[in-house]
Amino acid sequence: MPSSVIAKYSYDAPTEILRVIYVSGSVYDYLHVPASVYVDLKNARSKGTYLNTHIKGKFDYKKVS
């Protein structure tokens, strides 16, 4: 199901970085995200809701662009 918030996301397991590209064009790297959280995001019916509830405010992040 397409997200109205997230355009694309990817996960790098060795570094535990979840990269989220928002529909707005902003790119954020969420740091030290366990693989299980990434899997849950992939399986979530609403990616935006999952992101807001389980990732934002829970993990450090840096704005890439």
Summary of the model, kept short:
The protein is of the alpha+beta class. It has helices spanning 35-43, 47-55; strands spanning 6-12, 17-22, 27-30, 61-63.
Q: How many structural domains are formed by the residues?
A: 1
The major beta sheet can be summarized as: 4 strands, antiparallel
* Number of beta strands: 4
Strand order of the largest sheet: 1-2-3-4
Q: Which class do the helix and strand fractions yield?
A: alpha+beta
Average pLDDT taken over every residue? 95
Q: What string, H for helix and E for strand, traces the elements in order? A: EEEHHE
What spatial form do the alpha-carbon principal axes imply? globular
Q: Would you write up a description of this structure?
A:
The protein is of the alpha+beta class and 65 residues long. It has one domain (6-63). The chain has helices at residues 35-43, 47-55; strands at residues 6-12, 17-22, 27-30, 61-63. It has a four-stranded antiparallel sheet with strand order 1-2-3-4, with helices on one face. A hairpin with a 4-residue loop joins strand 1 (6-12) and strand 2. The longest helix is centred in the middle third of the chain and has 9 residues, at 35-43. The model has no long low-confidence stretch (mean pLDDT 95).
